[in-house]
Design a protein that fits this description.
Elements (H helix, E strand, L loop, with lengths): L34 H11 L1 H4 L4 E7 L17 H4 L4 E3 L6 E3 L3 H4 L6 E6 L6 H10 L21 H9 L8 E4 L18 E2 L22 H21 L1 H18 L2 H7 L6 H7 L3 H14 L4 E6 L8 H26 L6 E6 L3 E2 L11 E2 L3 E6 L7 E3 L1 E2 L6 E3 L4 H11 L7 E3 L5 E3 L12
Amino acid sequence: MFRLSLGRPYQNCSGTSRRHALRLGACGLIGGLTLPRLLELQALAASPISAKAKSCIFLFLEGGPPHQDMWDPKPEAPPEIRGPFGTISTNVPDIFVTDQLPLCAQMADKYTILRSHSHNDNGHSTGYHYVMTGHRPSFADGDNPVPNNEYFPSIGSAVSRTLGQRGALPAYINLPHPMSAGGPGFYGAEHAPFVIEADPTQPDFEVKDLRPPGHLSDQRLSLRKQLLSGIDHLERERNQSQGKAMSTYYEKAYSLVTSEDARKAFNIHAEPDAVRDAYGRTQLGQCALLARRLVEGGCRFVGVDAPGWDVHFNCFPSLKTDLIPYADRAFSALVTDLEQRGLLDETLVVMMGEMGRTPRINAQAGRDHWSMAQTIIFAGGGTKPGQVIGATDKHATAPTENPVSVNDLLRTISVLMGIDPDRTFLGPLGRPVPIVDGGKVIHDLI
């Protein structure tokens, strides 16, 4: 993985920093064939579904966005449950969101609201790990520094390994900093994300490492690469695993530095002011715009880590003025822009966090961790838009219809991108490890 450092790390309530999180550095017969499994196999066999999404933009609202204050309003609940926000209709009959999402309400026919995602890991780092890998972590939430997924690969790394690059850009990119559980696990450095630790809202934003030194000609750059290859060969003989990893980094770096297409894709300043304004001049908005440029340039999986959603204390002013409006503008602009460019059908957009928030407002006028109910938003990439999947009870406490698990989510993303989720790779102990261990496809979404 490559890293650029800029700015200070953000910390959630556990006091851990995301910057600690990621650093450079069974085949067999089918058993128990139930109807859901049969439907899933039919979905996997359907080439129009598996070929639909060429890329995925994964907007991760880190900390846990409050589902009842955004996508799953409960207007009939008491004030301590429903909160201070009102409810508005969308452009799809009988679909309602809170009045803090006016832009998304106007284009609800372009995405799907899934209100019944649920799991039982209430930790930030552990929940993040679970959502990104489909496996429960071996470490405790709050460990500092935060352990990374050293064994199980993230969904982005699985996309990288199975689909590979389709252009000059890396297959898997994180921005504007590492996703704390976005690492490659036992897949190795080749499938780690390229990480841009820089803020695209800044006027001097650029991926500086993509610009070769001005005094070096192409010939001298090539000679330096040959010299490095010789040194790398000696290092690999001395320390095979470390040498192989560093060789991977060097090759990725060289291919990016010498690629004009890569530099163009990262050049967000080439966008007209009107387009940048439409996304919002916020970190989330400009990261979403940059993500669109990256999938346009061939990137397979772009993970955008958007912090600030750990709203324990006096949360409603910040939800109203900062957090929800920024997400409303960024998501609506991204989906609209992709559609206008003819990219929405082949780009899967997912927006979620590691958890939801408690049904009842706490004594500090905030909402605490609540993983038992959460809303996920999907658009494009072969998904069926203009609908709501699942429901929660009258207090948004738990799913009452179509409960969806973490592995259901990861299995569905895999299928939409044409990946067999049951495909296995040999782990460090020589045992086959499937891309997704269990779960079922969310058929109503496809």
